[in-house]
Amino acid sequence: MYSPEISRRQFIATTAAIAGGIAMSPLTAGAAGAARKTAADQVALGRTGLKLSRLGVGCGSNSGNVQRALGHDGFNRLIRYAYDRGLTYLDTAQSYQTHEWIRQAIQGLPREKFFIQTKMSGNPEKPLEVLDRFRQELGTDYIDSVLTHCTVTPDWDNERRRVMDALEEAKQKKIIGVHGVSCHSLPALELSARLDWVDVNLVRLNPQGAHMDTPALTWNATSNASHVLPVIEQIRIMRQNGHGVIGMKMIGDGDFTEAADRRTAIRFAMQSGLTDAVVIGFKSTEEIDEAVKTINAALAVLT
């Protein structure tokens, strides 16, 4: 769990070390004079050729319980409010139980405007049948991005070869746009960074080190600011290899109850050049407004 005491002791030293490695990065260089950037920009996802809004709407806070607690009417209003603000990237998963909720929320809106990413848990016997079910649940002929979900071992590519092969087949058939992985340990992340199969990495990232990948082979290992730099090292490799990188756990899985902590995390994500986009789980329009305002302010210094 996130510890404010640990974070504040280590935060200054950690972010100073990070800044030393990214201040003159080609990812952040040359921004002066460019058009003003915003949370609603359609940005390139690595070298995939696809685009998505810089800020995405997470539909799986606390395994989707937070969003489902809104009820269908409340969830529909949230998604449509986000859409009106230009946030067209929707992030979900099999385990969040929000596929059908998204289908209802975007009904009547242009499907091509959305970037929908979902995740397949474990290693099902018939991944293509699972994928067909996903499409039916989401009410769409294609899914923009499908990830193998929550990997923790250093050889997850061997463990999930069946899923990887199926997703590659689906990609060739244009049933999905791209495929990738969400990692929940540093060894899994290290493998992901160097795998050519990976188009998209969904990476846990915040400068406070809350809910970050660690050397422990478990999805929920305790972490702190000392775990940030090893993750950043792997993200740099991903970027060098042309992978798309999406940041998650931006507000510490909801642990950052202080606005100052949220601003710090969002500023870091926007100004570091480490991610193409980020995703945050929202439960209210006010939270969307706060995130958009904070992102826009953070990006303003780069333009």
List the helices and strands and how they pair.
Layout: H1 4-22, E1 42-44, E2 51-53, E3 55-58, H2 65-68, H3 71-84, E4 89-91, H4 99-105, E5 115-121, H5 127-138, E6 143-151, H6 156-159, H7 161-172, E7 176-183, H8 186-194, E8 200-204, H9 228-240, E9 244-248, H10 259-271, E10 277-281, H11 285-300
Summary, kept brief:
With 303 residues, the chain is α/β, with parallel strands linked by helices.
What features would you highlight for this structure?
eight-stranded parallel barrel, TIM Barrel, two-stranded antiparallel sheet, disordered N terminus, 11 helices, alpha/beta, globular, 17% strand, 303 residues
Describe the structure.
There is one protein chain. The chain is α/β, with parallel strands linked by helices and 303 residues long. Helix content is 41%, strand content 17%. It is built from eleven helices and ten strands. It has an eight-stranded parallel beta barrel, surrounded by five helices. β7 (176-183), α8 (186-194) and β8 (200-204) form a beta-alpha-beta unit.
